[in-house]
UniProtKB/TrEMBL annotation, chain B:
Dehydrogenase E1 component domain location: 20-313
Keyword annotations: Oxidoreductase, Pyruvate, Thiamine pyrophosphate
Gene3D superfamilies on file: 3.40.50.970
InterPro entries in the record: DH_E1 (IPR001017), PDH_E1_Alpha_Subunit (IPR050642), THDP-binding (IPR029061)
UniProt name for this protein: Pyruvate dehydrogenase
Cofactor: thiamine diphosphate
Organism: Parafrankia soli
Signal peptide coordinates: none
GO MF term list: magnesium ion binding; pyruvate dehydrogenase (acetyl-transferring) activity
Entries under SUPFAM superfamilies matching the protein: Thiamin diphosphate-binding fold (THDP-binding) (SSF52518)
GO biological process terms, semicolon-separated: pyruvate decarboxylation to acetyl-CoA
Length: 331, 332
């Protein structure tokens, strides 16, 4: 099934299984819904699949209030670029509530939102802003790359006791893959997944970057370079052990993401690698992220901004060349 | 006994209002004295002057009704019944605080009393109150949620979003605006074109009511109607209570922006001596009874403060708790 169908199934089964679950957002009820919530209001009613005014702060605030009372709200912010309107509720309220009240109140909400990009929608409908939320203690940040992971991780997020930011990617919604239909299936948050095993270099990514990394790994295999693709799946909690384990074996790493490279999630991963594996690395860790520019609307320009297989392959070659240079210098 | 019964619950409410107002004032006075002298170290956004509104909210709401307030919330917390020790304890960073001392003055919550959230962000409370009201309806409870905020909050998008949503869905919510005539350091007249905050209600399709927020009985009357309406499923009300802040935005505010005549007039309209005179004039309580109420409030505050000062400071290991449900989720 597609990612969209997998996410729909996760929401469907959560609504079916637990009365505390409800969905709230813009255009999520039928007949206006076309994304992962399509069909659900017809099945569970508009009290549990609740269309709202265009009011992002109140959507998330209302989800928080209901979550404080034991509900498991799933709020939808249609496109990630709109999340700024709701940022105060997410950052100052959902994230900090448990800490500030010593656990007396909590806000176990899930905020689903979608990363656009690649559709020519321009600078305000295309951003990957996950680094913002990684920076806020109290939030969990989840970015699936496959339909299977989408279903398993969304199920975990909904029933997790902490507020979760769940990032979908418009360009992955139509991707197909095998998905367990068992309602009991879930994937624990904080566990990375090796999407392809390799020995020469580790491509560390999440979300759409995983797809580009797998494409690069295929091409590299034809050049007899064995690339491992590690899918982080959740950025917080971050599976540091899996990152270290993989790069310890391969000794080279390239971090790939659609978020802007400068001060992006990759910077944290590079910091971890240099601290934990300084003596083990054969080359500086490379990053392939989006260019530091508001996303341009024309497709010819936009395609230059994002990571792609060519850029990843070039970065891998830089890590391989570095080894020869250094050993040459030593010799 | 017979006369008390004949006077009915109205008498009880009036006495209760004075008890609450007196306790709020005593708590503010003691805190202010302590901070000014250096005895107490904490930040504080004083509520002195706004007691009548909070007392009315406390007297009208049931224990299971819920309240969302703001950083200027000492009076609201007391009105809703949050124990003084937990309030002072939180303000002074002690383990006996409502959040074991780590949330601080602006972030006190006490769900057992129905005090669900205090926010430090102007305008952020109403959306959360919308969610609490939705939860009550989904659970089939007849409980009402009150969101309390200042005049400044009504200029935020967050307030507008929440008010529209609450009206749209006929939620059991009352929006109580404590119009203290200043948004931080800026007079209300400089921040909105309209003369009355209550006029905003028409834009959302809900009733808007403006009352003298220094008259607890006027607030009680208006609030009872709004709460009744909300409880009956008829939707929210915007209740504007006009009052004044005696100590400025934050404790220590030099208040250079408040004209002397305005402050003099506000002090002349201080809700406490005014309500005391009224209780005496109406023969509700005698002077001795009122004196006893005042003495009891001071004692209760002193007792709570002593307990707080004897309690240990927030523990260092609190840093490892409550960031996530499971502390292992924190990055190293």
């Amino acid at each position: 099934m597609t990612m969209r169908e997998a996410l729909n199934l996760a929401l469907d089964q959560a609504l079916e299984r637990d009365e505390r679950v409800f969905l709230i957002g813009e255009d999520i009820a039928d007949p206006g819904a076309s994304g992962p919530t399509a069909g659900l209001s017809s099945r569970y009613g508009t009290e549990r699949v609740l269309d709202t005014p265009i009011s992002e702060a109140a959507i998330v605030g209302a989800a928080i209030g209901a979550a404080m009372e034991g509900f498991r709200p799933v709020a939808e912010i249609m496109i990630m670029d709109f999340i700024g309107i709701a940022a105060d509720q997410i950052i100052n309220h959902a994230a900090k509530m448990r800490f500030m009240t010593g656990g007396r109140t909590t806000a176990p909400i899930t905020v689903r939102t979608q990363i656009y990009g690649g559709l020519g929608t321009g600078a305000t409908h295309s951003q990957s802003l996950e680094a913002w939320f990684m920076h806020i203690p109290g939030l969990k940040v989840i970015v699936p790359s496959t339909p299977r992971d989408g279903k398993g991780l969304l199920t975990s997020a909904i029933f997790d006791d902490d507020p979760c930011i769940f990032l979908e990617t418009i360009r992955l919604q139509g991707q197909r893959g095998m998905v367990p239909v068992d309602p009991g299936f879930s994937i624990p948050l904080g566990q990375a997944d090796v999407k392809r095993a390799g020995t020469d270099v580790t491509l560390i990514s999440y979300g759409r970057g995983v797809v580009e990394s797998l494409g690069a790994a295929d091409a590299l295999a034809r050049q007899e370079i064995s690339a491992e693709v590690l899918d982080l799946r959740t950025l917080v909690p971050l599976d540091t052990a899996a990152i270290i384990e993989s790069v310890h074996r391969t000794t080279r790493a390239v971090v790939v993401h659609d978020a802007v490279q400068f001060a992006g999630p990759g910077a944290e991963i590079v910091a971890i690698l240099q601290r934990e594996l300084f003596d083990r690395l054969s080359a500086p860790v490379e990053r392939v992220g989006a260019r530091f520019v508001p996303n341009p609307a024309p497709p010819a320009l936009e395609s230059q901004v994002y990571p792609n297989s060519e850029k990843i392959i070039a970065a891998v070659h830089r890590t391989l060349r570095w080894k020869t240079t250094r050993e040459g210098a030593r010799g | 006994m017979t006369t008390e019964q004949a006077a009915g619950p109205a008498l009880d409410v009036r006495r209760r209002l004075y008890e609450l107002m007196t306790l709020m004032k005593a708590a503010d006075d003691r805190l202010s004295k302590g901070i000014a002298s250096g005895e107490l170290q904490c930040v504080y956004w004083p509520s002195r002057g706004q007691e009548a509104i909070a007392a009315a909210v406390g007297a009208v709401l049931r224990l299971d009704d819920q309240l969302v307030t703001t950083y200027r919330g000492l009076h609201d917390l007391i009105g809703k019944g949050v124990p003084l020790v937990e309030i002072y304890g939180e303000m002074l960073g002690r383990q006996v605080g409502s959040g074991r001392g780590k949330g601080g003055t602006m972030h006190i919550a006490h769900p057992d009393s129905g005090l669900m959230m205090s926010t430090g962000i102007v305008g952020a409370g109403p959306p959360v109150a919308v969610g609490l009201a939705m939860a009550a309806r989904r659970k089939g409870l007849d409980r009402v949620t009150v969101a309390s905020f200042g005049d400044g909050a009504t200029n935020t998008g967050s307030f507008h979003e929440a008010a529209n949503m609450a009206a749209l869905w006929d939620l059991p919510l009352v929006l109580v605006c404590q119009n203290n005539q200043y948004a931080e350091m800026t007079p209300t007249g400089h921040t909105m074109k309209i003369a009355q905050v209550a006029d905003r209600a028409a834009g959302y399709g809900m009733p808007g009511v403006r009352v003298d927020g220094n008259d607890p009985l006027a607030v009680v009357a208006a609030l009872e109607e709004a709460v009744e309406r909300a409880r009956a499923g008829a939707g929210p009300t915007l209740l504007e209570c006009v009052t004044f802040r005696f100590r400025g935005h934050y404790f220590g505010d030099p208040m250079k922006y408040i004209p002397t005549e305005q402050m003099d007039a506000a002090i002349a309209a201080d809700p406490l001596p005014r309500f005391r005179s009224r209780l005496l004039d109406d023969g509700v309580c005698g002077a001795r009874e009122l004196d006893e109420i005042e003495t009891a409030a001071v004692s209760a505050v002193d007792e709570a403060l002593a307990a707080v000062l004897a309690a240990p400071a927030a523990a260092l290991d609190e840093l490892d708790r409550d960031v996530y449900a499971d502390p292992r989720n924190c990055p190293a």
